[in-house]
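Why do we bother with a discrete structure alphabet at all? Because it lets us treat a fold like text: something you can write down, compare, and reason about line by line. To make this less abstract, here is a complete entry for Major facilitator superfamily (MFS) profile domain-containing protein. Read it the way you would read a sentence in a foreign language you are learning: slowly, and without expecting to understand everything at once.
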Amino acid sequence: MFKNIRQLTPFSLVLLSISFIMSISQSTMTTTYPILMKSFNVDTTTVQWLTTGFMVAMTLVMPLSPWLLDNIKLKQLLNGIVAVFLVGTVIAMITPNFTGIIIGRLLEGVAVGALFPTFQSVIIENTPKDNRGVTMGVVGLVMGSALAVGPIISGIILQWVSWRALFALFLIVLLILAIFLQKYIENTHILKPSRFDWFSAVTLLGFGGILYSISILPSTTINWRWWSIIIISVLLLIIFITRQIKLRVPFLDLQVFKYAGYTPAMLLTGLSYSGLIIATVLLPLFYQRIFNFSPLVSGLLMVPAAIFLSQLNPRAGQMLNKIGLKKLVYIGMGMMILGYLLLSTVGAKFWIAALIAAMLLEGGNAFIMMPAVTAANNALPKDLVSHGTAIVTTMRQFIGATSVVVASILITAFDTRFNFTVALTLTSQCFIIVPIVGIILINRIKGK
């Protein structure tokens, strides 16, 4: 792993370091829900906005990343993204009310949404095609590990200090990184200035509307308001797509879908991300609700899976050029199937089985997500990489968020009819369909 990291340029390491810290913020807040609900006297529906708002903000900004890359010097863009994140973190850390935390999280989501496609596009652009597998394996290590260790870090901090210490940790570490790594930031992306299309930007609200509607499903009834948001959001997306096709310089160049292999590879990244994020949702519930472990122990039990993922990501990148994407996906999807089977059979009886299932689910992600991202971008010419990456990251976020909502709905429905243990095992069983769809999908990609 460290050998692969040493092969990266100092600038790539800067991008990865900053991305790692900001990525952790995605998955840390769920552990704070009970504490925040008690501190601010808010209900479950309200506190979930810390995650829902974050995801919506991310999704709204991701499609703008190609324009940002083409019109703002990379050093200024990266510093601006970090500044937005730091401002949001400070607001969330010092606020006396819950609204302030929501505002802070929205700003953090905006920053992360701009960073993810930007840093991946820049790294891909500056890496020869033959080396992209290994490089994106390291990128996968950063993104996957950050998502996996988020609950671990929050569990440890909340065991001894206030929830505000979580934001303080992000603030201090990211500020130190931003200051001391300035000399390594390079303006490697060639600017292609164009006018900012405000109309397209407004129609992007359709992405946020759909994601918001999906996110609130577990805690709301499907009424005329919900349908109104969905219909308006879909119409906005249709307008956005139509406009991008007509514009000479679009926000998102949809020509990427004309290149063979791009679409299936893009969908595979979303399916693999689903397995990773569902592991971080289901496993803490298994540990805390079935085996009665404390949040700290529950977090520590996620460590083996995080380590396993971090070890496999660079190796999967190396294997991409040797055995091809298809065999890697077969391995990864096979591991995910085994993981869900374990959870749905003996996962509720033996905690060690749940731990192994977590390792299989997260480890399987290593063989799919970043190799698929690499394959998707290798299918594109260099000038479309930023557009292809923006679409991949947006769809990955959408599929991941949808998976969490589906899991919540299934758990609630099964718990009402049976009991919580049965609810978790049956939900795990239902998600076996995800890797099966992935196996079907990979057969639509030509080549090895």
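What the structure line is telling us, in plain words: The first helix runs from residue 2 to 6. The chain has one domain: 2-442.
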